[in-house]
Amino acid sequence: MLFADDLVLVDESRAGVNMRHEDGDVSLEGQVVAKKDTFRYLGSMLQKDGDIDEDVRHRISAGWLKWRHASGVLCDKKVPQRLKGKFYRTAIRPAILYGAECWPTKRRHVQQLSVAEMRMLRWFCGHTRRDRVRNEEIRDRVGVAPIEEKLIQHRLRWFGHVQQRPPEASRGRGRPRLTWDETVKRDLKEWNIAKELAMDRSAWRLAINVLEP
């Protein structure tokens, strides 16, 4: 079941479906429908507790799947490293950051994303951590900005859309608003950007843009 919001269970009798027990379970033709603490929705993993641990792991796995599909090119020494970096930016990083604009990230989430990204970049550059080549040098070589900065850019871009929406558009989206708002406030403070700037589309786009090396 990929889409749960439009699902309707229909039966000829009340006894056939939607019979709630004392513990809150739902049964279908006598079989109890199992409860899930985590489920997939529109490509994202949602958790009962509202955290994003499973979603972050799922997106990293999706990035590695894209990476493996293109490993024949990415690991080819004849392919220029800048071209490999461009492929990473256009095909692999978007898979990792899908839905990230609504993530209320914690330090551990950012660390997981950064570690996965650097493993990919070092791998197609032919280096390991034992080579003692600095991350910044690898990034400059392939032309890829830190994924942490791109994550903030995604979140602030979405925040700009929220700020610019018409007053009557009040429907929310994604994770708990308070936690996400706190994350955005942290982003704005870290980048020294006033939230009022979001009302100027051109200035906002320029302020949150992350340049690739």
UniProtKB/TrEMBL annotation:
Organism domain of life: Eukaryota
Name this protein carries in UniProt: Reverse transcriptase domain-containing protein
